[in-house]
Amino acid sequence: MQAWRVHENGEPGEVMRLEEVDRPAPGDGQVLLKVRAANINFPDALLCRGEYQVRPPLPFTPGVEICGETEDGRRVIANPALPHGGFAEYAVADTAAVLPAPEQLDDAQAAALHIGYQTGWFGLHRRARLRAGETLLVHAAAGGVGSAAVQLGKAAGARVIGVVGGPEKAAVARELGCDLVVDRRAENVIGAVKEATGGLGADVVYDPVGGEAYTQSTKCVAFEGRIVVVGFASGSIPAPALNHALVKNYTILGLHWGLYNLKDPAAVAQCHAELTRLAAEGAVKPLISERVPFKDAADAVQRVADGRSTGRIAVLPETGTGAATGTGTAHTTAPEGAAR
């Protein structure tokens, strides 16, 4: 089969190589899945760089989120068990973590109703206890993680303020349903949030960015507000001033969704049932900005690494076609556009 593999750490576009390899053999408690769609997540870039909290042995195949097909024909979603990731024709996953793919969504959308939406649901509901009528501030609102939080916030009855970088991403955030969009490149984020909330600030802040975004959050979070830290896409991990949290009376909440798979897998299944219900009702619909052919996976991962994407980019395997080897320099397909 064909698979993208990383033999040394570095930038995805430089170190991902398309190769012909044997199908992986599932171990005890695992299942072999035919990959129908693999969505690109920022952790895929971190894996290539060797900067993720999990460091699989070299060589490995990245790709942490897929919609796949079991040997008996069931369509499922899963997080592949590294080193046999999703940017391949076949991947391996832990049987206990495999979930049914929602019928209402196509393969790429179904794959995307997983990491980003599970993270959003646990962050907003389990950690921050978001309530209807509250103001939710979402950083990187047009990205894969942020777009999920926007939709989940709206579904919960919150007023959503989305922060983005640039007019193109601002247009995407508006289509997603943000009540207010703030372009951090052209506007003062702190001032815009305070003006929009009558000086009160945001009740809940959802931050997958870190760095300056976190600093801004501390200056426009409301009394008894909650800042949910879900990642550091900026590359800068903030060192919070706890005296500031004390003086302003806000809460800093960490969210590592992967731990729920280990500590409380029943909660993950319950969350998936809720997300499936919301998808069936049309309350949430993953934003798939592009569907790229398998040969273009490395370039697409690099664009996500560089912050040059919106929503999710889906990689579609080309089973039984193409050459066996290559490098990550192929061109990508044109964007499909934003949410409907």
Give a brief rundown of this model.
With 340 residues, the protein is of the alpha/beta class. It has twelve helices and 16 strands.
What value does the average pLDDT take? 92
Structure class? alpha/beta
Oligomer: single chain
Q: How many helical stretches?
A: 12
Instruction: Note poorly predicted spans.
Output: 320-340
Query: What are the secondary-structure elements, in order, as H or E?
Result: EHEEHEEEEHHEHEHEHEHEHEHHEHEE
Cα separation of the termini? 35 Å
Outline: globular
Biggest pleated-sheet summary: 7 strands, mixed
The total of beta strands comes to: 16
Radius of gyration: 19 Å
Share of helical residues: 25-40%
Question: Secondary-structure blueprint of this entry?
Answer:
Elements: E1 2-6, H1 12-15, E2 16-20, E3 30-39, H2 42-49, E4 66-69, E5 75-78, E6 90-94, E7 99-100, H3 107-112, H4 115-127, E8 135-139, H5 144-155, E9 159-164, H6 167-176, E10 180-183, H7 189-196, E11 202-207, H8 212-219, E12 221-229, H9 242-248, E13 251-254, H10 258-263, H11 265-281, E14 288-293, H12 297-305, E15 312-316, E16 326-327
Parallel strand pairs: 8-9, 8-11, 9-10, 11-12, 12-13, 14-15
Antiparallel strand pairs: 1-2, 2-16, 3-4, 3-6, 3-15, 4-5, 5-7
Explain what this protein looks like in three dimensions.
Residues 320-340 have low confidence and may be disordered. This protein is an alpha/beta fold. Helix 4 packs across helix 11. Strands 3, 4, 5, 6, 7, 14 and 15 form a seven-stranded mixed sheet that branches. The longest helix is centred in the last third of the chain and has 17 residues, at 265-281. Helix content is 32%, strand content 24%. Helix 8 links the parallel strand 11 and strand 12 (221-229). The protein has twelve helices and 16 strands.
